[in-house]
Amino acid sequence: MLRPALLLLLLLGSLSSSLFAAEAPPGAAACVIRHQQELLLVQDRISDRYSLSGGYIDGGETPAQAALRELFEETGLHGRITGELGRWQRATVFACQTLTPIRAQRGSGFVSLLQAPNLGGEILNARLIEATRLPHDQRRFPTQLDWITPRLAQVPESEVQWVSDFSREGSALHRAELPLIQRLQQWLGPNASWLEVGNLLGSAAFQLALLPFLLPLLGWPRLRNLLFAMVLLTLLVQLLKEGIAWPRPFHLDPMLAQRSAQGFGMPSGHTASTLLFWGLLLGALPTLKAWQGMGLALLLAALAGLARVWLGVHFISDVAAGLGLGALLLALRSPLAALAQRQAPWVLLLLASALAGWLTQSSALAGLAMFTLGLVSGNLLQLERHPAPALHATLLALAGGLLIAGALFVLPVLTDSSLLILAGKGLLYGCLGFWLSAALWWLLSFINTGSGPRSSPPR
């Protein structure tokens, strides 16, 4: 007698949960823009993959309002809703039509983003492309385009203005620099691997990867000084980028892009960080005179700047500004080292990064704030941070760094939720800062003594 009743309860529960899920309000909205058989797709910087223009619905918005707002923020295009195509997962998908012609590059299909409020933000580029021509590994939501294909007939066609590039929308300075970048790329060719090395020198990921090997050489006090200078430089670069808001070369001519890059262009962070990072390192070597170390750092920074221009992600003026900023902080290395030894300047850096990230909604600044939070909180712990055996320190620091780097790499594969990816990356950046400033030293002390660290004043 109990089995039929139990089955009935399970059936009713399954039915009610299905009805509840179907009646749940949408959490996101998207616009389908079509020209002939091509769709307007945007490439976001979090996953580096393409999807429809769309996003989360803000409080007080209708799904239709959210879809049109996201379209404008991501592409700079104003549109109108012509119909509702239905629900795809938690998003309401609308048939939309642009109110003005889409400016697209002839041949590549890339769409101008120069009028987009989010230029330099969450969207790397936008393009018109047939769904069948977009590989599955470049789709942010693999089934989204398959769901849309049979509904394309319900989407009105939007007008397109085909142009050779978008240079007319740029400044006079940038228009003058574009032919120089084009000639430089033609002269050097697409396979200049030595410039890839130059680009690597200014990469934050590469510089962080070197820290385990620098730890035995520099010791914690000098490594902390280096981290303070680099965090300050990153904060200044991001603030200048957001404040000046100059486009990158591939924003004016997408065919120049040999690599994607997020954010605005002025100044070149790679160039500035190469000069400061390697200037501080080479200047600390006893085998080199000060002027020799600075000269080598300047050559490396020039190589990094040339690489960024060759890749089409920076103008020559961006590189010049980056060199100036890096040189300024390098000249102030002594007072910066004195500040790094106190806790208050670190707290100020943390507050400035967090406030700037909140005001600009920049994920780069938010990540910097989390990394600094990890460093500051770790520094507060009373641990002995004496020089450790080189092999132990290098291997342990490298193991922790690789673990965190692996998690950062895997995170976008595990979920397609932007919020979860951003939150996860922020947490991992904080863990990296805490690992360098505290957890690493606790483990080293435990390995060396077998009884854990002894208390001492913070260093």
Describe the structure.
The chain is an alpha+beta fold. The protein has 15 helices and 10 strands. It has helices spanning 2-23, 63-75, 144-148, 172-188, 193-201, 204-244, 249-252, 269-283, 290-310, 316-331, 333-340, 343-360, 363-380, 390-414, 418-449; strands spanning 28-32, 34-35, 38-44, 50-56, 79-88, 91-98, 102-105, 110-111, 123-130, 160-163. Strands 1, 2, 3, 4, 5, 6, 8 and 9 form an 8-stranded mixed β-sheet that branches. The radius of gyration is 26 Å and the shape is globular. Residues 1-12, 14-22 and 451-459 have low confidence and may be disordered.
- Number of strand elements: 10
What profile does the largest beta sheet have?
8 strands, mixed
Output the helix-strand order.
Answer: HEEEEHEEEEEHEHHHHHHHHHHHH
Low-confidence stretches: 1-12, 14-22, 451-459
Our measurement of the CA-to-CA distance between the termini, rounded to an integer number of angstroms, reads: 73 Å
* Oligomerization status of the protein chains: single chain
Give the helix level as a range of percent: 55-70%
Taking all residues together, what is the mean pLDDT?
A: 82
The proportion of strand residues reads 5-15%
Given the helix and strand composition, which structural class is it? alpha+beta
Radius of gyration: 26 Å
Instruction: Supply the number of helical segments.
Output: 15
Kindly list the characteristics that best describe this protein:
459 residues, two-stranded parallel sheet, globular, alpha+beta, 10 strands, 15 helices, single chain, disordered N terminus, eight-stranded mixed β-sheet
